[in-house]
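<discrete_fold_record>
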Amino acid sequence: MRIDADRLWRRLHDLAAFTEPDQPWTRRAFSVSFQQGRDWLRQQFEAAGLQTRMDSAGNLIGRLEGSVPGLPPLATGSHSDTVPHGGRFDGVLGVLAGLEAVQSIRESGLRLRHPLEVIDFLGEEPSDHGVSCIGSRACAGHLDAGMLALRDGAGESLAAAMARIGARPGELGPALRPPGSLAAFVELHIEQGPVLEARQLPIGVVTNIVGIRRYTVTVAGRADHAGTTPMHLRQDALVGAAEVIAQAQRLAASHGDGPPYVVATVGRLALTPNAANSVPGHVSMTLEVRSDAPAVLDGFVHAVMAASADALNRLRVTADVALLTRTEPVACDPRVMAAIEAAAARLQLGSMRLPSGAGHDAMHLAEAGPVGMVFVPCRDGRSHCPEEWIEPDQAAAGTAVLAQALVALDGA
């Protein structure tokens, strides 16, 4: 079995070309460039000999049948959407490496017992509706009616956006991938951190994926004229929001390097009136906390708001918190981890075990069957930025390990 490294590298750049012209590399879920990329992906799946379909959650799936009828599939894949001004490899590498691995297995003449599936999950990055992992969340039955009703800045609901690209959100409810429906799921991804590069190792074997809580925090004050309202009479919602942000940073930083692993971010704010000469009267922001400790995840926002209470009272503003999304920490399956390590050793590639501080579609597939992840280094550990980069040989090495691991899991 031979990986076609040139074909993989060419496809990576072909898919990256579907981007907003003035915002490389941007391919937001539900956008025109996203749909164009999806159309191209479908053509590539079919050219590789895979049967394609879109499930009711909008996941694009390519399938190669196995030799034993009725066995659950071995699956791989990731996502093709990006954050604004993101990179060319986050998510995309996992989809196209999965395609290359399955195509290489097919071209070698090897027919596995299990079916092989390559999945491009819908909307892994936080969408403009505030929900991440849309397609994989639905696989676990965790995309609920409240999430489907959320609206983006243009007023379109998530359900309407999904229907627009060919999904069937009205059919969603129970898990699309119930327990036992996958033989295994293996996702290849760039590390999005500096560890592998610093240790000069080509392969990472992921041990666990952090859990994530996202909250909408709404701070309400009073809008006033910025020139005529004395400072002591203001009810500045943005100053109140700044207090909450500072407390979130302090609390997360207090955990140091762990254990447990804890990071917190406020990465999105909307304020009104949002004018240079007006005191902000209302702020809505998204607070995210990530940790491998469920107790920290559940208690973090309450601790932040308690620490902010006195300052908010002095400012005479109020704050409300609403849970947006909830994702639990996930441990990778020991059998899948062992298959990845054995594949790396067979290919004479050094590896190490490490956790993932980023969320991935694999988290939501863990209820359907055993999951694991392969990491490859990225330059300076950077991701979610235009400078995100890997070398062709790094992409090929990770893909070769992925293919070997799938073959090994087929016989396990």
Notes: The mean pLDDT is 97. The first strand starts at residue 51 and ends at 54. The chain has two domains: 5-209+329-411, 211-327.
